[in-house]
Design goal:
18% of the residues lie in helices and 33% in strands. It is an alpha+beta fold. The protein folds into three domains: 42 residues, no CATH class; 153 residues, Sandwich (Jelly Rolls); 117 residues, Sandwich (Jelly Rolls), CATH 2.60.120.10. It is globular, with a radius of gyration of 24 Å. The structure holds fe (ii) ion (FE2).
Length: 328
């Protein structure tokens, strides 16, 4: 045995009790794998620390109108309210991997350009005439559109319309915090000048296209009993956020399921209800609600409804962790 190994081994020669060994090895930043811990390393079933939550647009919209009166985009680079899941120690994440926020901009305003490693998108709730400039191209943001800003793309927002615009932002920022590839910077000129308008672009999922794809969809695929008529509009440019749009006819009732995916739903049209774990959410236009992984979920529509579902389903599939099953 080399001399250096003999010297190290001798430190443990006198140990006769397991507690002494645990104490001694702790100094080496080693921890025994056989002892119980405060936080178990494994458990029997998928279980999220995040909870089901429902935010009503009818309650948040007046707050955004007030924000429009009391703070400008010169002070607030983004005039938004972040939807914080109310669990201990969390001050921003909406689900384990995603954060959502309601954002608003006034006619004539600009929200300065920046870029960051986190992928981001906007689901447009109410807008005529607002736009996003993404890497030097100006993309209209009209009601029902979904506008993408993949990681490290410059983006800023402006508004040429006549009335305050509202949208829902979604970013994979909690995932970026976990994996730590964070990089963020402000645009050196604060704004991308002379942006050329583009109506059709990989950065803009147009409402008209979503609507025609939904109309051409019969069953919604193999998971239709749970999720109804569905189109998948996920962009390969930002694979961490799966984007699906559901169209549920008046009276539609989905079967109950559990799955390994964390979801944020944005209601673009209609009303209905969703049982999510122990909660029962009656949702309507503009509302947002959260489905954490592992809970029993069942959706139904009381009016013809369109919802955008933003999930980590693709990420789960990539990892080989995806699961979906019917339940009582
Ligand atoms: Fe951003």
């Amino acid at each position: 045995m080399p001399e250096i190994l003999e010297a190290s081994a001798s430190r443990y020669d006198a140990i006769r009790h397991v507690d002494e060994l645990i104490h001694a090895i702790d100094a080496q930043n080693c921890t025994p794998g056989w002892t119980p811990r405060k936080q178990p390393l494994m458990w029997r079933h998928p279980l999220s620390k995040f909870v089901p939550v429902h935010w009503r647009f009818s309650e948040i919209r007046p707050a955004l109108l007030a924000a429009g009166r009391v703070i400008g985009t010169d002070q607030a680079e983004r005039r938004n309210f972040v939807l914080r899941n109310p669990i201990e120690g969390n001050d921003f994440a909406t689900t384990r991997t995603l954060v959502g926020a309601y954002q608003s901009i006034l006619p004539g305003e600009r929200a300065r350009s920046h870029r960051h490693s986190s992928h981001a998108l906007r689901v447009i709730i109410e807008s005529r005439g607002s736009y996003s400039v993404v890497n030097g191209k100006r993309h209209p943001m009209e009601t029902g559109d979904i506008v993408l800003t993949p990681g490290n793309h410059w983006h800023g927002h402006g508004h040429d319309g006549d009335s305050q615009a509202f949208w829902f932002d979604c970013l994979d920022l909690p995932l970026v915090h976990l994996l730590e590839p964070m990089k963020a910077e402000d645009h050196p000129e604060h704004w991308e000048q002379n942006a050329e308008r583009v109506d059709h672009s990989p950065m803009r999922i147009e409402w008209a296209d979503i609507e025609s794809r939904l109309a051409a969809t019969d069953t919604g695929g193999s998971d239709a009993s749970f999720f109804g008529k569905t189109v998948d509009v996920t962009s390969a440019l930002m694979p961490t956020i799966t984007i699906k749009v559901h169209h549920w006819a008046e009276g539609w009732q989905g079967l109950a399921y559990r799955r390994n995916a964390n979801a944020i739903y944005v209601v673009l049209r209609g009303s209905g209800s969703s049982a999510v774990g122990e909660e029962h959410f009656n949702w309507s236009f503009g509302d947002v609600f959260v489905e954490p992984l592992g809970v029993r979920v069942a959706h139904s529509a009381s009016e013809d409804a369109v919802l955008v579902a933003l999930t980590d389903e693709g990420l789960m599939k990539f990892c080989g962790y995806d699961a979906l099953e019917a339940c009582e």
